[in-house]
Automatic annotation (TrEMBL):
EC number: 1.-.-.-
Sample GO molecular function, one term: oxidoreductase activity
Organism expressing this protein natively: Limihaloglobus sulfuriphilus
Record keywords: Oxidoreductase
Top class in the EC scheme: oxidoreductase
Highest taxon above the source species: Bacteria
Domain GFO/IDH/MocA-like oxidoreductase: 133-253
Gfo/Idh/MocA-like oxidoreductase N-terminal domain boundaries: 5-118
Name of a matching Pfam family: GFO_IDH_MocA_C3
InterPro entries assigned to the protein according to its UniProt record, in alphabetical order: Gfo/Idh/MocA-like_OxRdtase_N (IPR000683), Gfo/Idh/MocA_Oxidoreductase (IPR052515), GFO_IDH_MocA-like_dom (IPR055170), NAD(P)-bd_dom_sf (IPR036291)
Descriptive protein name: Putative oxidoreductase YcjS
């Protein structure tokens, strides 16, 4: 079986995570990297032993590519994704898929028309530590779920935003929610997808000079009557681990990064204590104070799953429509904060 040839668009920080992930996959080979900054493309390509280009179409015409992975600023995902579809190339995109649902739908339509695979990288979904939580929800061990909360109290310095696309509406699609908290918002959308409405506030508290929010708080109402909270920030020094809480009439789970601080149910099982012990004091790497302080191992799992979906013709778990859910929720939060009212989803 021949290796799938993968090319990367973009040669910034996240592109290196993609390159590392591809390098770890026996079934794949990094064929090329392109960036409008040719020096950056050359540097990263030489590091990983592949070709470098300063234009996407030149790369696609010069190199056989099976999969294009997009690692440009978020608001620049649409055009290369559509170009890839026109060339008949499967495409996987760093989160978010794009900065608005409208732009996401254009990408989805292009790949549906081309018959190519489209996926998004939400690597948190590949953390095995979430499996006990998924299982507990599936088996209704919480009873009636009454509350779900997501908290991402992170820190980014002024240097992170200075002379950067970060925190801009056009290229980042927003601030702390669309860039940092979106991973846990995606997890919430997977676990508790039936959100009815949101009421939210956003603010620039620690970084007053950026366009978008560095702090956001949203109250959620779910269709089953449960309530919820989303807190996302890059103004919480020195940054704290992300947290997810699910509570119900018969159980509570508190998930802290890759660990559980609470995993308790009315009808206890022997495995409950094992979950606490297995995932206690995990030696995790997180980006709560440094965007580079994450491991690439979950990116690797995501790429492997995408490749498997291509090989087998099965649906990739983070398809275009699935990846759009978190962006739709965040857009609704922004609308609520902007208009000062409850917004229905």
């Amino acid at each position: 079986m021949s290796k799938l040839q993968i090319a990367i668009v973009g040669a910034g920080v996240i592109a290196e995570f993609h390159a590392k992930a591809v390098k770890d996959i026996p079934d794949a080979q990094l064929a090329a990297i392109c960036d409008i900054d040719s020096e950056k493309a050359d540097k990263l390509a030489s590091q990983y032993g592949c070709a470098a280009f300063d234009g996407l179409e030149n790369m696609l015409k010069s190199v056989d590519v099976d999969i294009l992975t997009i690692a440009t600023p978020s608001g620049l995902h649409r055009d290369p994704a559509i170009t890839a579809a026109q060339y008949g190339i499967h495409t996987i995109i760093e989160k978010p898929l794009e900065v608005t649902v409208e732009r996401i739908n254009e990408i989805i339509d292009a790949h549906n028309k081309a018959g190519t695979k489209l996926g998004c990288i939400f690597q948190t979904r590949y953390s095995e530590s979430l499996d006990p939580l998924r299982d507990a929800i599936k088996r209704q061990r919480f009873g009636r779920i009454t509350f779900a909360g997501v908290y991402v109290p992170w820190w980014r310095s002024d240097d992170y935003y200075k002379d950067s696309w970060h925190g801009t509406w056009k290229l980042d699609g927003g601030g702390a929610l669309m860039n940092q908290a979106i991973h846990m918002i995606d997890t919430l959308c997977e676990l508790m997808p039936d959100i009815e409405s949101v009421n939210a506030f956003t603010a620039r508290v620690g970084h007053p000079d950026i366009e978008a929010e560095d702090s956001a708080a949203a109250a959620l109402k779910f269709k089953n009557g449960a309530l919820g909270v989303i807190h996302g920030s890059t103004a919480c020094y020195p940054g704290q681990p992300k947290r997810l809480e699910i509570m119900g009439t018969e159980g509570t789970a508190v998930y802290l990064e890759d660990s559980y601080t609470v995993f308790e149910f009315k009808n206890s099982e022997p495995g409950d204590q094992q979950v606490l012990e297995k995932y206690a004091n995990m030696d995790y790497k997180s980006g709560f104070s440094d965007p580079k302080a994450i491991a690439h191992t979950l990116h690797t799992k995501c790429f492997e799953d995408f490749i498997e979906s291509i090989r087998t013709g099965t649906e990739f778990k983070i398809s275009g429509p699935e990846a759009s859910k978190s962006v739709k929720l965040i857009e609704s939060i922004y609308k609520s904060a902007r208009e000062g009212r409850t917004v229905s989803l």
